[in-house]
């Protein structure tokens, strides 16, 4: 079902993947386990023969979530809650919810309260990553997750199960990396929207199947050189709704690098295939880049962006701000200042999950790039 | 410390002495450590680092209605208006120097504990970045309702406390003194018991104290935990309340009709107005989980790091919504409360995002109607006087009907 998708189908599926997931789990008799971002070790869930699905909001209207989370809550959190309360809750047999900020901490509790008949486990990611205790804690949490899933599923997994799952996930990331590489050099081969739809679906569909689609898509890309593109990098956590990528495509922006959880930060999650899989999964946690809700070296984000900007030769940085994401909002003023001081052009894009009209985003984006070029695009 | 001073005088003296010491810390070879109100400050005290709480300073400015002005300054620096008013007013203070107090000394180091919220961590990151100063995050995962997980969380926290000690030793080039920590823990434990005794005075009928007394009285335990002065203060305070009020049957309101629970932090700039308004309806707010956040129960028979970890990780703000509800229900029972005001505080997402679910559980389990209102603890621009007054008035009408019905 997901092993022979074309690029066109990919964008369509990514827009609303849930009908397809519903059909797939029914046909296969496999349980779906939802997670929110970030850092849940999906390899562990997959090793249990479950389908890990990263929940990334809905474009459908908010109906029930506002009664649980007020309007100044992160729009992704509200959108995710709405998705399970009103639209797709029945699709999931269980959830593994990471706690990475104050909002996600409450979200886990609320989720458990509103869906009392479902398996809901918290994944308590450390909110500091620079000390040895963080490593100790990640290992503990992975082991606790395995024990919890074992109890729920009534089965245990072997190291070999984990290693097999890791291989499939690593293959997925390697394929995405290759496609990204092609796009960097030849932007006309694949649109921004198509590329990031591949990322999104990789986080939501069965990877054994989807990897086959990725292989075919990769082979089918036509890397023809075309001019007129402006290379940019995306900075942030997620970039939604998907129509935002249409805006980038409309004005011929070519995303050549990013720090998104639904982008490069996902690719950074490659797990070492040699040695003890638990140790390898633990080690992977610390290979990923900066993530606003986790305390890290405060200059790391800036250094990563600067390196990415210089390495890719990008012309500008687009910072994608999720409305009401406190973590981003504390970082942004200083980050913006540092980026500007370094002479790197930056455009901040305010996004909200339930936004349907993107005209204001389009106008601001166009104005920014016009001023960057000193004329019209 | 003079025994002749009453609690108010004593509080003033302790505060002045503390700030004098903090402002002159460097002259005495000590460091100033910024820390969060709920953090294992006992380690700072034991290592001669003077703890300073930017939150407390922010409260003073917000109570004096300086919130909107200070927050606006911060917003003009690019920060959004829906961040914590403590953080916004503090950043505004740093930009303008504007304060209703003598201000607070500049920091040398930072320690943030996320048992309270993650916002504090981000705020402290901003401050640390400005001065290029060292920061330690004491990470407390949510104290989820799983026995095995709790044991692991405590172990993780103990490991971190050891890291914190190493970090302090590295900065100060001084060996940490565990005997001194045990002494500090003794002071902290005794002061906490007395603080809880003070809060529990609200069990008397009529209640001799309201939450507004608690909010004033809690200051010493927040910033002087781990010192003998805190013990002296709470002893004096408890004795005064017993002698002057409880023994004489004097309450905050003699015609006490509604004994109310408050959820969340207070609306600092409205707190005396609220007391008067509620009092006019026979209502007195007795308590909240917030003021109980410093009712620690340190077990001195344990390794000090273990009892510190157990206490700090299990604060209400780091507990599950279900556990928070149980903590509140315990207060309802012990204080015999018959009303509840649930404040959705725009500034404090960490506490407020639980409020709708908490309200559902509490109203269901107690059968008592709740008043929910939204505003901000420190930024007057988010306070709608007429709307909130109307809601309070309507709530008392509901409570009246409810009481008649259940009588």
How would you explain this protein's 3D organization?
- The complex is a heterodimer of chains A (377) and B (407).
- Chain A is built from 15 helices and eight strands.
- Chain A has helices spanning 7-15, 18-28, 42-47, 75-87, 102-114, 132-153, 159-185, 192-202, 207-220, 243-250, 264-267, 277-285, 300-312, 326-341, 359-373; strands spanning 32-35, 51-54, 94-98, 119-123, 230-236, 253-258, 316-322, 346-351.
- A four-stranded parallel β-sheet of chain A has the order 2-1-3-4, with helices on both faces. Chain A has a four-stranded parallel β-sheet with strand order 6-5-7-8, sandwiched between helices.
- In chain A, helix 4 packs parallel to helix 5, helix 6 (132-153) packs across helix 12 and helix 7 (159-185) runs parallel beside helix 9 (207-220).
- With 407 residues, chain B is α/β, with parallel strands linked by helices.
- Chain B has one domain (7-406).
- In chain B, strand 1, helix 2 (42-46) and strand 2 form a beta-alpha-beta unit.
- The mean pLDDT of chain B is 96.
- The A-B interface holds A 67-70, 72-73, 99, 101-103, 105-106, 108-110, 112-113, 122, 124, 126-128, 131-134, 136-137, 140, 144, 293, 295, 298-299, 324, 326-327, 329-334, 336 and B 77-80, 82-83, 87, 114, 117-119, 121-123, 125-126, 128-129, 135, 137, 139, 141-142, 144, 148-149, 152-153, 155-156, 159-160, 163, 320-322, 344, 346, 349-350, 352-354, 356-357, 374.
């Amino acid at each position: 079902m997901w092993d022979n998708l074309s690029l066109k189908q990919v964008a369509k599926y990514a827009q609303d993947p849930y009908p397809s997931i519903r059909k797939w789990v029914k046909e296969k008799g496999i349980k779906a386990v939802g997670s929110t971002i970030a850092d849940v070790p999906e390899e562990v869930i997959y090793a249990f023969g479950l389908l890990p699905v990263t929940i990334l909001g809905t474009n459908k209207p908010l109906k029930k979530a506002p009664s649980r989370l007020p309007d100044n809550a992160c729009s992704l959190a509200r959108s995710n809650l709405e998705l399970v309360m009103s639209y797709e809750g029945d699709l999931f047999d269980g959830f593994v919810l990471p706690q990475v900020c104050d909002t996600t901490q409450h979200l886990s509790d609320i989720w458990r309260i509103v869906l009392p008949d479902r398996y809901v486990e918290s994944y308590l990611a450390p909110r500091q990553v620079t000390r040895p205790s963080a490593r100790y804690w990640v290992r503990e949490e992975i082991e606790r997750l395995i024990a919890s899933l074992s109890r729920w599923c009534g089965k245990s997994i072997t190291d070999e199960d984990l290693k097999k799952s890791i291989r499939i996930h690593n293959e997925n990331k390697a394929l995405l990396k290759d496609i990204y590489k092609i796009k960097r050099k030849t932007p006309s081969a694949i649109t921004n929207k198509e590329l990031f739809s591949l990322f999104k679906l990789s986080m939501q569909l069965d990877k054994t199947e989807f990897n086959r689609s990725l292989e075919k898509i990769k082979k089918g890309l036509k890397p023809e050189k075309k001019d007129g593109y402006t290379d940019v990098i995306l900075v942030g956590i997620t970039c939604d709704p998907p129509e935002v990528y249409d805006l980038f495509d409309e004005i011929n922006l070519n995303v050549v690098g990013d720090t998104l959880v639904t982008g490069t930060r996902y690719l950074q999650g490659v797990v070492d295939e040699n040695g003890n899989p638990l140790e390898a999964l633990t080690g992977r946690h610390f290979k990923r880049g900066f993530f606003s809700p986790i305390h890290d070296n405060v200059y790391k984000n800036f250094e990563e962006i600067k390196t990415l900007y210089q390495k890719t030769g990008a012309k500008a940085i687009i910072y994608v701000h999720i409305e009401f994401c406190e973590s981003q909002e504390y970082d942004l003023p200083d980050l913006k200042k540092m980026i500007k001081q370094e002479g790197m052009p930056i455009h901040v894009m305010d996004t909200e999950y339930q936004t349907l009209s993107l005209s204001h985003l389009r106008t601001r984006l166009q104005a920014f790039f016009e001023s960057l070029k000193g004329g019209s695009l | 410390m003079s025994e002749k001073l009453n609690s108010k005088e004593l509080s003033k003296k302790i505060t002045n002495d503390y700030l004098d010491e903090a402002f002159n810390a460097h002259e005495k070879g000590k460091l100033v450590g910024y820390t969060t109100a709920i953090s294992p400050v006992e380690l700072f005290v034991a290592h001669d680092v003077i703890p300073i709480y930017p939150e407390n300073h922010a409260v003073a400015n917000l109570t004096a209605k300086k919130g909107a002005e200070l927050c606006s300054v911060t917003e003009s620096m690019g920060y959004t208006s829906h961040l914590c008013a403590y953080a916004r007013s503090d950043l505004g203070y740093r930009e303008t120097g504007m304060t209703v107090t003598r201000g607070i000394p500049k920091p040398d180091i930072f320690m943030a504990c996320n048992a309270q919220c993650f916002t504090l961590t981000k705020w402290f990151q901003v401050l640390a970045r400005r001065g290029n100063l060292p920061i330690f995050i004491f990470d407390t995962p949510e104290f989820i309702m799983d026995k095995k997980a709790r044991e692991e969380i405590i172990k993780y926290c103990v490991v971190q406390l050891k890291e914190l000690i190493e970090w302090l030793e590295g900065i100060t080039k001084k060996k940490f003194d565990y005997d001194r920590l045990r002494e500090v823990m003794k002071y902290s434990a005794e002061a906490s018991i007395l603080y809880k005794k003070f809060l529990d005075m609200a069990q008397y009928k009529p209640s001799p104290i309201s939450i507004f007394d608690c909010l004033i009285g809690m200051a010493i335990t927040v910033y002087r935990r781990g010192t003998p002065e805190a013990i002296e203060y709470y002893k004096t305070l408890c004795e005064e309340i017993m002698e002057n009020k409880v023994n004489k049957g004097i309450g905050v309101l003699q015609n006490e009709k509604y004994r109310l629970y408050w959820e969340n932090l207070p609306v600092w700039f409205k707190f005396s107005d609220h007391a008067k308004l509620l009092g006019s309806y026979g209502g007195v707010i007795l308590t909240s989980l917030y003021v109980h956040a410093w009712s620690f129960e340190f077990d001195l028979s344990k390794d000090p790091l273990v009892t510190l970890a157990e206490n700090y990780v299990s604060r209400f703000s780091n507990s599950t919504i279900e556990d928070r509800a149980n903590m509140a229900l315990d207060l309802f029972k012990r204080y015999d409360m018959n009303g509840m005001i649930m404040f959705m505080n725009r500034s404090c997402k960490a506490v407020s995002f639980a409020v709708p679910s908490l309200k559902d559980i509490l109203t269901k389990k107690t059968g008592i109607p709740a008043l929910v209102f939204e505003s901000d603890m420190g930024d007057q621009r988010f306070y709608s006087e007429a709307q909130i007054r109307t809601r309070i008035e309507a709530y008392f009408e509901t409570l009246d009907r409810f009481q008649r019905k259940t009588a």
